[in-house]
């Protein structure tokens, strides 16, 4: 068990609402160990204060990151509504990962339980979900955001081009945004989930079922979900065919034709940097991510496409 000063949690969970039993046990163990090591209670209290301050700062930075990106999305939406009389953006929802779920994920995925490790390795603390009517709009929005010079795309996971085995579809981008503070700039990763209404409906029902059955969804419901995923994909395809009647893609969207006759145009994500591998020598933390020409997006898509 580590006793580093960067993150020491108290057993009182007043400042960590809803902390899981698992975490309480971990904290109690750590505290016991530290007291057994003869650590001065004053010192322990000081470490606790530092950890809580660090957590509060982290949450403030990531909330600011959400607001920065949310503002960008809102501006695009307002521009579309006012000038073009149509917006590809239907709904926007934001969420800051709860402390409980952040710590649970940190215990599961981080190589050490420290604030720097959490900042470096957990990229979905800040989340924004954008819902659109059409699949082509999903890629179009991603393209508009990717082009903004102060956003760096760190990671792309295209679960539309390659749905998950359970049928989950959505486009996920991790973008890094600068947050300007009084003394320094924090470069905050924000997870963007961009999907159609049909994809969102399916994901929301699946999420509720997973929650209800504690991730063990009964077989017959899995079959229903599978069917529903197929229907949602079909609905998106049919709506895509109607889309041109409602509003053709604008000139700037660089349309081209795919073999299947659907509008297609690569959306360049050459800013995407694979943060899982360090082959490009880029860290998501230093905010100085270069955009190498040969950078590939992690996940299934090296380039985004209008479908
Ligand atoms: P919440 O409550 O939204 O925060 P991770 O699971 O984050 O360690 P992973 O799986 O590589 O890493 O990330 P990925 O695939 O980008 O998925 C992250 C988020 O996408 C999830 O966040 C969900 O919001 C959503 N998601 C991914 N797969 C599914 C799925 O099969 N069904 C549904 N309904 N949503 C999915 P969290 O943290 O799990 O949850």
Kindly state the mean pLDDT as a whole number?
77
**Strand order, biggest sheet?**
1-2-5-4-3
The rough form would be described as flat
β-sheet strand percentage: 15-25%
Q: Report the helical percentage.
A: 40-55%
CATH evolutionary superfamily: Beta Polymerase, domain 2
Largest sheet: 5 strands, mixed
What is the CATH class designation?
Alpha Beta
> What is the tally of helical segments?
7
Distance between the termini: 50 Å
Class inferred from helices and paired strands: alpha+beta
* C-alpha-based Rg, rounded: 22 Å
Number of strands: 9
Q: Number of folding domains?
A: 1
Tell me the quaternary state: single chain
Regions with little confidence, pLDDT below 50 for 5+ residues:
1-18, 255-307
CATH architecture: 2-Layer Sandwich
Return the CATH topology.
Answer: Beta Polymerase, domain 2
List SSEs in N-to-C order: HHEHHEHEEEHHEEEE
Bound molecules: ligand 0O2
Task: Tell me about this structure.
The chain is 44% helix and 16% strand. It is an alpha+beta fold and 307 residues long. It has a single domain, classed as Beta Polymerase, domain 2. The strands form three sheets. It has a five-stranded mixed β-sheet. Strands 6-7 form a two-stranded antiparallel ribbon. The chain has a two-stranded antiparallel sheet with strand order 8-9. β6 (256-257) and β7 (263-264) form a beta hairpin. The longest helix is centred in the N-terminal third of the chain and has 44 residues, at 41-84. The protein is flat, with a radius of gyration of 22 Å. Mean pLDDT is 77; it is low at 1-18 and 255-307. Bound molecules: ligand 0O2. Ligand 0O2 binds at residues 97, 124, 157, 164, 166, 168, 172, 203, 206-207.
């Amino acid at each position: 068990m580590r006793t580093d000063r960067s993150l020491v949690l108290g057993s009182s969970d007043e400042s960590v609402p809803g902390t899981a039993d698992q975490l309480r046990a971990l904290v109690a163990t750590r505290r016991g160990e530290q007291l057994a090591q003869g650590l001065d209670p004053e010192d322990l209290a000081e470490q606790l204060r530092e950890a809580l301050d660090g957590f509060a700062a982290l949450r403030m930075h990531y909330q600011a990151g959400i607001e920065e990106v949310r503002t960008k999305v809102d501006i695009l939406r307002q521009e579309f509504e006012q000038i073009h009389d149509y917006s590809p953006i239907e709904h926007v929802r934001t969420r800051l990962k709860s402390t409980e779920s952040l710590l649970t994920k940190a215990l599961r995925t981080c190589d050490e339980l420290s604030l720097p490790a959490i900042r470096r390795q957990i990229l979905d603390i800040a989340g924004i979900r954008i819902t659109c009517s059409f699949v082509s709009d999903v890629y179009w929005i991603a393209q508009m955001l990717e082009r903004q010079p102060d956003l760096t795309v760190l990671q792309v996971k295209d679960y539309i081009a390659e749905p998950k085995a359970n049928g989950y579809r959505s486009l996920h981008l991790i973008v890094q945004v600068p947050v300007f503070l009084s003394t320094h700039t924090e470069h905050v990763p924000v997870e963007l989930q961009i999907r159609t209404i049909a994809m969102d409906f399916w994901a929301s029902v699946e999420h509720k079922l997973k929650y209800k059955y504690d991730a063990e969804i009964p077989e017959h419901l899995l079959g229903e979900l599978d069917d529903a995923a197929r229907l949602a994909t079909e609905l998106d395809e049919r709506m895509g065919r109607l889309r041109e009647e409602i509003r053709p893609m604008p000139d700037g969207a660089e349309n081209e034709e795919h073999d299947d006759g659907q509008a297609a145009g690569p959306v360049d994500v050459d800013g995407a940097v694979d943060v899982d591998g360090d082959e490009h020598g880029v860290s998501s933390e230093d905010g100085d991510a270069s955009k190498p020409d040969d950078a590939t997006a992690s996940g299934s898509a090296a380039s985004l496409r209008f479908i």
